[in-house]
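#struct-queue
[09:14] JT: dropping the first one here, sequence first, then the structure tokens:
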Amino acid sequence: MHSQRLALLPGAAIAIVLLLNSPFSTVRAQTASSTEAADMGAIKEVVEAYSTGWNSRDAHALAMLFTEDADYTTVGGSNTHGRKDIEQMFVRLLGTGQFSASHRADTVKRIRFVAPGIASVDDYWVVEGVLSERPHIEGLYAWVMVKQDGHWLTAVHHATNFAPPAAAPRGN
């Protein structure tokens, strides 16, 4: 009888291996990937809402995409801290500032989850109709988004713009 128990052990080991590779473990992986897919979709919606808020000149809607203690760094390097001040920055920029007649488009290039509830987002942007010597500008936003109360919000936002194209050389 003792030898029969030992004979069952290899079968039990095989059963455990089969169980670990069963649909139950697949369900766990699918749940994680479906959660990640949902989070990626929600993050893309935040970026889309940013474009929509910008294009409709809705400083409040833009500010609500940020955490209370968010940091926003512009392409010029100035930093605004906190949702209230970020809203006032948008009021100035979009109301009577150089972006008051602009239109923007954003394209998410990469989302990387660095920890549960924290994502790094690379966003290629284009703004047309800028009231400056460069009516067309484009660049990259680096966002750090956090999930708070089930919603993705921007905690850190850094903007860079691409250098203007070099002027064509003049002929002699």
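[09:21] JT: and here's the second one, same format:
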Amino acid sequence: MRKQFQYGAVGAAALACVALSAAAETGAYAVAQTGSAAGQVFDIGPDPAGLPANCPFPNNDATFHFLDGTMVQHGTTNKNGDWGGETLEGTAIFYEDTTPLYQGHVTIWTGGGNNAKSQSEGGFTLTFHGTGSLGSLDIHANFHQTSNANGNSTANVANVSVTCS
């Protein structure tokens, strides 16, 4: 069975239900859910910076298919704003299009929030080390963006490092 991981898909609905009931009573809530990452699929798409010349595969649609591991979703709401995030960690297979190429350890974090003044932030970090018949693959990517109360971007960071050997 293939599950497509979408940020906040199931967790957001659960968090929203808890938030509405808790916020109605206290104006604040915090919740965390844990589970297995096995079966989750995380789509990362092509590398926005392009791949090093020695990588033995095209820069097409890439995904991670989790074989095992853990998933944690968390959220907090209070008078100062809302924050939430998700972490997946475990053994996964790196696919390029539909071809499995490398198996190894991956950690993915994504999250964000906004404060009562409508300032917001969001981020994403991914680290992977895997091996396969093509050699080894190391990926480290992190993105972070903040915006002010007018919705204008005040910081936008994107770093991607891919090493094939």
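[09:30] RK: nice, looked through the second one.
[09:31] RK: Residues 1-25 have pLDDT under 50 and may be disordered.
[09:31] JT: good to know. The helical segments are 9-26.
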